[in-house]
């Protein structure tokens, strides 16, 4: 039976780039992997066919020969070595798709590289710090010192993990590669070396201060600049202020998450503020001036129009929050809440009754509502 065209096997065009061929190979290999196609008796042979095609086309010299001579390039001694290599080569050709199918179980992740080389020193973890601030602090911005419990490089061994003058040695289990291989039937599987944890090195004389880790636990005091305009959920990144890496590895980052606590007077909506202001009934009816607070600690005088009702809003421009990115300042909105007087004296009650008896057309909304109610009841009469 004649062999299928390698490009056709991968589902790629002849002008495909190396990246396009790799994507096509991974897609086909995952689709046809025998472990995922137990009900397909041809899956293993199709899987091998896909591997054979990619083993040729991923190599620039083999690809050039195949593009010129086709399958004949690897027959009768032309080009030698063709796609029919030994089982070890076959397994290595699958290393990319193994990563996708089996995740960290296989080699090629976490800094080790697809070739099974020694991993770089482990990077320190990123840290998170939750910082609560007041709305006033969010309005003004502030410089704040925080204490962060973290791991820092050991000062005794300078982060190497070894006693002074001692040098790490190659791990005897993996010979410095950081990975060990095991044969599992048809496949060769790579795992992180259990002895050195993937570092490829061991320390025979560990530092007494850090126990060979190259880092120690310590609280650090950091000065943080909180810009004006931050709000709950704002994230500030401090590069290199996270946990120290293992045995001299790079330091992680520190992420500060801002939470602005609720304010007893102001509510916030982005850059705008709102404030519910109670107004005496007489002031709402007759009109007058009131003073309202502003977030910067100041006061603003507001004129209340005569006949103001509960829910009426007024705007104070530029009295809101500063924009975090870019220029500009939000506004503050005042919402009136007309307050009904309580704990009236006998005289006050008498005056209100006189006012009620003398009132005509002073409550237009009330008159309109009860007029509609009267019409509704009349319609409901049998």
UniProtKB/TrEMBL annotation:
Known partners and oligomeric status: Homodimer.
Description of its domains: The J domain is necessary and sufficient to stimulate DnaK ATPase activity. Zinc center 1 plays an important role in the autonomous, DnaK-independent chaperone activity of DnaJ. Zinc center 2 is essential for interaction with DnaK and for DnaJ activity.
GO cellular component terms attached to this protein's record: cytoplasm
InterPro entries (UniProt xref): DnaJ, DnaJ_C, DnaJ_domain, DnaJ_domain_CS, HSP40/DnaJ_pept-bd, HSP_DnaJ_Cys-rich_dom, HSP_DnaJ_Cys-rich_dom_sf, J_dom_sf
Listed GO MF terms: ATP binding; heat shock protein binding; unfolded protein binding; zinc ion binding
ZnF region ranges: CR-type: 141-219
Domain CR-type stretches: 141-219
Protein name: Chaperone protein DnaJ
Gene: dnaJ
CXXCXGXG motif repeats: 154-161, 171-178, 193-200, 207-214
Any matching Pfam family: DnaJ_C
Stated role: Participates actively in the response to hyperosmotic and heat shock by preventing the aggregation of stress-denatured proteins and by disaggregating proteins, also in an autonomous, DnaK-independent fashion. Unfolded proteins bind initially to DnaJ; upon interaction with the DnaJ-bound protein, DnaK hydrolyzes its bound ATP, resulting in the formation of a stable complex. GrpE releases ADP from DnaK; ATP binding to DnaK triggers the release of the substrate protein, thus completing the reaction cycle.
Disordered: annotated segments: 27-47
